[in-house]
Amino acid sequence: MALDLEQAMHTADVLTEALPYIQRFEGKVMVVKYGGNAMTDPILESSFARDIVMLKTVGIHPVVVHGGGPQVDNLLKELGRSSDRIDGMRVTDKATMDVVEMVLGGSVNKSIVNLINKHGGRAIGLTGKDASLIRAKKSPMSKTDEQGNEQQIDLGFVGDVVSINRDVIDLMIASNFIPVIAPLGVDDEGNTYNINADVVAGKVAEFMLAEKLILLTNIKGVLDKEGNVATGLTPSKVDEMIADGTISGGMIPKISYALEAVKNGVKSAVIVDGRVPHATLLEVFTDKGVGTLISRHP
Ligand SMILES: Nc1ncnc2c1ncn2[C@@H]1O[C@H](COP(=O)(O)OP(=O)(O)O)[C@@H](O)[C@H]1O
Ligand SMILES: CC(=O)N[C@@H](CCC(=O)OP(=O)(O)O)C(=O)O
Q1: Under a CB-based contact definition with an 8 Å cutoff, are residues 199 and 253 in contact?
Q2: Domains located in the chain, CATH noted
């Protein structure tokens, strides 16, 4: 009996600790990017879905943007195909684009929607093509070779975000739905583009002037040369870390677009370990949020 009371007091403490955060964030938009690498375990998937439902229930407006890179890799492999990545971007030819659309706009999007709804949320899945939510253009890319010459790289159907039609998201929020967005975009000619999910999350956060951008991934945060979680990152420090190879691969778009989102009006962005159960709740409702924080007011 005494133990039960102790447990109940602990629960009361936890709820009380959350109160100022609930009050502060009520009515605010939070964009949560759910990376394919964080979708690995059914327990973690459920804890993610419950966190999103919890945010909505206390009056915050979560907007989910998801990835699914490893899931695309799996289907490509089953089909006997593969694709290269350059600085975290998948080189996407027409046949790869079809697979990307099938996986991100299909199975991955629907399973996240299903999971959130199973936990009592009202999620609606959409891709950037629905109501032209994500206007895109072909992404130009260049890289400096070992001789110091700039080389143009053709990434195929990889897109950059031109604009986000926030009316669509506002409408869903106003009707109490949780938007779950797959990172596909469309241009004026109707071409479909594969866009890195971190880029889409950063841009959605920017266009929504979100309170927070939470990027869930499979590592503790941005690691410095010594392997410690880096904090207080500035654009020039990040450029330095990319140039010397400390930041590479999928971390390049993640940190770059998180910085850009904050520069363009998002209050804070945080790169957190999605392998920790309830990583989103910890980040939003406690002081114990961990990972790499980028904020306008350090
Ligand atoms: N400096 C760094 N700090 C942390 N992770 C890094 C760094 N440089 C490269 N990475 C790689 O970036 C990965 C996260 O990016 P990515 O695989 O695209 O994840 P997600 O699927 O969550 O978007 C990490 O697992 C790690 O391998
Ligand atoms: C252009 C590009 O790289 N697009 C990504 C989109 C999915 C994604 O970003 O998934 P994660 O967040 O799980 O890495 C891809 O094709 O893998």
Answers
A1: yes
A2: 29-295 (3.40.1160.10)
